[in-house]
Design goal:
single chain, about 210 residues, alpha+beta, 3 domains, four-stranded antiparallel beta sheet, two-stranded antiparallel ribbon, 8 helices, 10 strands
């Protein structure tokens, strides 16, 4: 059995192991960030089912009052997930965020400040960093669509032509040249100008793009 003493799960920090339950389940004594202590089953900690002493839901309900039809709003969920991936080493996405130095501004550690700066989450949009090498703060964040976020990934390739810098995907849409063709031409040493101004042709006998 893995010793969980000292490990953190959401708002909980494991203090020590307690006697097993009458069914044989392992139980741990945990201290929440609010200061309250509670006992939690080992499997509930590991599968993420229990992340606080119960104060999280109460916090949402009484402090933020940010619920719609009895459900936590998308705005609050975006804020909470943003904090988790930047501050919780147990979060599955931590290595891509907090693990590489992406932080949340001190003001935004409070939901009310986040809501003040960003407003309500628009339909079909989620929180996005304008500069992927910088953290979450008012000056570097926006509500963006999935398409906008896809073009804003760290591995997105950008091409500059005629003083216009766009992603390969955007150039493909603008010129009508398939992305695979643009990528292939550049890899073969074509200039950006020739790549984007030469129409793609498809031979009828051979499905070969040139």
């Amino acid at each position: 059995m893995t010793d969980l003493t000292g490990q953190k799960f959401g708002r909980l920090e494991v203090i020590k192991r307690m006697p097993n339950s009458k069914w044989g389940h392992v139980i741990w004594l945990c201290r929440c960030i609010c200061g309250k202590e509670s006992t939690v089953y080992s499997f509930s900690l590991k599968n993420g089912r229990t992340k606080s002493c119960g104060c999280f839901i109460q916090d949402v309900k009484t402090k933020h009052d940010h619920k719609s039809n009895g459900e936590i709003t998308g705005t609050y969920r975006s804020w909470f997930c943003m904090k988790q991936r930047c501050t919780n080493p147990h979060n599955k996405d931590y290595h891509s965020y907090g693990g590489r130095g992406i932080t949340v501004s001190k003001e935004w550690l409070e939901f009310s400040n986040f809501l003040r700066d960003m407003g309500e989450q628009p339909p079909n949009k989620t929180i996005d960093r304008i500069d992927n090498n910088k953290g979450y703060c008012k000056s570097n964040c926006r509500w963006a669509t999935k398409g906008q976020q896809a073009r804003n990934k760290r591995n997105t390739r950008f091409i500059t032509y005629g003083n216009i810098r766009q992603s390969l995907d955007d150039w493909s849409k603008k010129t009508g040249i398939p992305k695979a063709v643009i990528r292939s031409r550049l890899s073969r040493g074509w200039s950006v100008q020739k790549t984007l101004t030469t129409a793609a042709k498809r031979y009828k006998k051979r499905e070969e793009i040139v």
